[in-house]
Amino acid sequence: MIEVSGVSKSYGKTLVVDGVTLSLPKGGLTSIIGPNGAGKSTLMSMIARLLPMDAGSVVVDGLDVTNVSGDVLARRLSILRQDNHLTARLTVTDLVTFGRYPYSKGRPTLEDRDHVERAIDYLGLADLRHRFLDELSGGQRQRAFVAMVLCQDTDYMLFDEPLNNLDISHSVSMMKLLRDSARDLGKTVVMVLHDINFASCYSDHIVVMRDGRLFLQGTPTDIVRQEILSEIYGTEFRVHELDGNRIATFY
Amino acid sequence: MPLKFFLPALLLTVILAFVSLFVGVRDVSPLDLFAGAADQRDLMVLVASRVPRTVALVLAGSGMAIAGTIMQMLARNRFVEPSTAGTVESAGLGMLTVLLIAPDMPVIAKMLVAAAFSMAGTALFLSILRAIPLRSILMVPLVGIMLGGMISAVTTFFAYRFDLLQSMGAWASGDFSVVLRGRYEILWVAFALTIAAYVAADRFTVAGMGEDFSSNLGLNYRKVMALGLVIVSMVTACVVVTAGVVPFLGLIVPNVVSMIMGDNLRRSLPWIGLCGAALVLVCDIIGRIINAPFEIPVGAVLGIVGSLFFLYLLIGRRNRVA
Ligand SMILES: Nc1ncnc2c1ncn2[C@@H]1O[C@H](COP(=O)(O)OP(=O)(O)OP(=O)(O)O)[C@@H](O)[C@H]1O
Ligand SMILES: [Mg+2]
After folding, report:
1. Across B78-107, average pLDDT
2. Nearest to A116 by CA among A162, A103, A158, A135
3. Which of A180, A226, B109, B148 is in Cβ range 3.0-4.6 Å of B86 for a Cys bridge?
């Protein structure tokens, strides 16, 4: 379980995350949605101890992320940020193999190699595995980063907009992959999404942030509603029931 | 790493080292040596001057190339190396301080003082980088060169005031002709540090992916930064104390190796060390034969080769992810 209590962050005088208290149960897929600048990425970075918080605490399975050694947490929780730019020139295989760093410290065992192979396979990177990251398209690179995080094989996986740069077919298979790892392997997946319909169809739980605050949370049925979405985004929405899913249109 | 390429490259470097042993004002012939016909003076030259010089070249070359690589991983910028980050100039300031305060210090103490100064200078450089919010790729070496310029201005000022410009001038351009037995052994410290760098290679690669990736993978970024800082500063100080500034080596070699085989240091560091040694050997041999019997210091030869390469990097790689 991830317990976020009273977490705040400000830059200068602007409070960008304002006393968020939230608990994310173990297992399942949670989506965080909300307008640009709502503080989603900031909150996620604080949960994963990439960013120090000004107030509050985050506890993951009883471990306080600000105190626990980075090494221990790296085997429990992993994160992929929204923008990733590497200056180091690594091949896809190198990158994915570094996902095993918390376990192998750079000396991958046979078991580590298995994890790498599986992750590369899941994300359809077999043909690209010897390419350097700076020789890939944006979507291919994004898949390589996701493969690295999968390879880290932690109980909790946080993804900030994992569908960045992905085409529709890859978006669908990425969502399926992450949902299946939550369902079949008992992983806890938390992701920031902008696509309401992906959030609606694949999440067990949706968290809405607005203006640095926790605005609402609930199941897709609770959240994906005309009046709620319109209020969150200030845009007209229509919500339809299609094949048992709630689909929002907004054109 | 494909061993089938590495071994020939190693052999080539050994041949270069061998050539380097037998190039010089006094003609020492390898044939005489093996036939046992070499006279006592030839042997003296070989043992007291040629062997130390070649060993020093190899150690300094591989050390500076590896120090450059580590700097590039820590600063996450392709254009930095000890001579574009204030490291070398700070070591110079340290040397001057020693000359002023305790000129009779043993070499190891001189090196440690120089290392302390270069560590402080490099740490200053890295903290300036942290403080600059939008660091464009070219800003980084510019900041380093400016910082280096400021530090060497201070050095020059005091050297001038205390009439030490001459002695400071001697190390400004790396010159291995001054290397003699008993005056280069400190470079073995640099060698030990490059071995340490290889042991920690994966940590440096992860650090090169940035602070966020490092934290995510459970690497203590600050510790690795500190370790890298120590290695870079000590290696630079060792080289500066024995032979003077060997510029651009840490820029050329890591960049070429990275273009060919990427930045997974576990794989590339042996190549970087080897190519660094080979390049200094070549430049030193060129410096010795081009204007014989006079010598052009290796620093000057590398300066020319290096500036051309720096230009090439700036122009040729403009449209790549640098
Ligand atoms: N380093 C920073 N310095 C100052 N302000 C910042 C900084 N990082 C983020 N902010 C501000 O904090 C607020 C929240 O940013 P955050 O990245 O968390 O938003 P987000 O919800 O992830 O938005 P998006 O959907 O665009 O990714 C924004 O208003 C942003 O301008
Ligand atoms: Mg964001």
Report:
1. 87
2. A103
3. B148
Residue identified by tokens 């608990």 is A23
Q: Are A41 and A192 in contact (CB under 8 A)?
A: yes
Q: Mind listing the pLDDT tens digit for each residue in B256-290?
A: 999 889 999 999 999 999 999 999 999 989 888 88
Cα-to-centroid distance, A42 and ligand 1 (Å): 6
Q: Which residues pair with B133 in a beta bridge?
A: none
Mean residue pLDDT of chain B comes to 85
| CATH of residue B117 | 1.10.3470.10
CA gap A230, A237 in Å, rounded: 6
- Cβ of B262 within 8 Å of Cβ of A89? The answer is yes
User: And the tokens for A131?
Assistant: 């390419």
**For residues B155 and B55, what is the distance between their CA atoms, to the nearest angstrom?**
30
Please give the residue of chain B at the shortest CA–CA distance from A85. Answer: B209
- For residue A222, the distance in angstroms to the closest alpha carbon of chain B comes to 33
Asked whether residue B63 is domain-assigned, the answer is yes
Q: Who has greater pLDDT, A79 or B126?
A: A79
| Structural domain harbouring B73 | 48-314
Across the interface, whether the CB atoms of B217 and A90 are under 8 A apart is answered: no
Q: Give A58 Cα–ligand 1 centroid separation in angstroms.
A: 19
- Whether the CB-CB separation of A214 and A22 falls below 8 Å is answered with yes
Total number of domains constituting chain B: 1
Interface residue A63 vs chain B (CB under 8 A)? no
> Residue B140 domain-assigned?
yes
Check residue A1 and report its DSSP letter: -
> Which residues, judged by CB distance below 6 Å to any ligand atom, belong to the binding site of ligand 1?
A 11, 16, 34, 36-42, 82
- B47, with CB counted inside 10 A (0-12, 13-18, 19+), is exposed
Residue B214: the pLDDT is 94
With contact defined as beta carbons under 8 Å apart, do B123 and B229 qualify?
yes
In sequence order, what are the residues at sequence separation of 6 or more whose Cβ sits closer than 8 angstroms to the Cβ of residue A19? A6, A7, A8, A55, A56, A213
ipTM of the complex: 0.92
Q: Any residues with CB less than 8 A from the CB of B121 and at least 6 apart, and which?
A: B85, B86, B87, B89, B90, B91, B93, B147, B151
A73: contact with B, CB 8 A cutoff: yes
User: What is the DSSP pairing of strand A2-11 with strand A14-24?
Assistant: antiparallel
Cross-strand bridge partners of residue A63:
A60
A69-119 pLDDT, tens per residue?
Answer: 999 999 999 999 998 888 889 999 999 999 999 998 888 889 999 999 999
Query: Which residue of A11, A51, A213 sits with most ligand 1 atoms within 8 Å of its CB, as the best mutation to test the pocket?
Result: A11
| Closest-CA residue to B118 (of B134, B139, B95, B98) | B95
**Residue B37 is assigned to a structural domain of this protein:** no
Among the partner residues A69, A102, A132, nearest to B217 by beta-carbon distance: A102
- Chain mean pLDDT for chain A: 93
Is B38 a domain residue?
no
Q: How far is B123 from chain A (nearest CA, A)?
A: 20
Inter-chain contacts counted by CB atoms under 8 A, chains A and B: 83
Judged by average pLDDT, the poorest of A70-84, A196-210, B30-44, B206-220 is: B30-44
Six-digit token string for B174: 């790396």
